Amino acid sequence: EENIIDAIKKYLEQEDGIEIFTATDGKTALEISRKEKPDLIILDIMLPEIDGLNVCRTLRHESSVYIIMLTAKTDDMDKMAGYAVGADSYVTKPFSPRILVAKINAALKRINRYRKYEVDEDTIEINGMKINNRKKMVRIDGRVIDLTGKEFDLLWFLASHQNHVFNRYELMEEIWGDDFYGSSDTVTVHVRRLREKIEENPSKPKFIKTVWGVGYKFEFEEDDTLD
What we know:
Blueprint: H1 2-12, H2 26-36, E1 40-44, H3 52-62, E2 66-71, H4 76-84, E3 89-92, H5 97-116, E4 123-126, E5 129-132, E6 137-140, E7 143-145, H6 149-160, H7 168-176, H8 185-198, E8 208-211, E9 215-218
Parallel strand pairs: 1-2, 2-3
Antiparallel strand pairs: 4-5, 5-6, 6-7, 8-9
């Protein structure tokens, strides 16, 4: 709604270093996102042309952009639907623009912290696996691996910190953020699904290793048969 856009934009324009793009329907939102590649998107569920849930679902197949869902609905099932299609956070109308801006700033700080630890290059290559962060694409021996946005984020983060062990809560904070709706078991599920897609033998992974009682790490050793 244009009045909501104007209110949010008014507050955001007071922040330094933020460039703002707006849309009043889902189709335009997707077009702008593909062209401008924003760091963060505030996405209303109730949109003409294409509704917010489908916009979010489409974006998640294309990028790992941080998405805050905005809705008038308060039912937990609606929140779960938003998170299921890849939303990172949720704000329910009516809301305070100042609270929303605070949430945006917190998310941007987390995004910048994540970037600080990224490798300088857009691509990581190791033993036939090529991970391209700019294109959000993974190839193994030339074959494209179909990953969800969160699966890619998890793989990129671990591969960017080879041999560093992260527990599930650290991964949940880095990949999902502190607004995550669910439990740390989601990390375990995503690791399992990721292994099913990238490992030749998921029960004896060569890339994503479990450090029992601690967490997970990305490591490749040709002759390593540890789980």
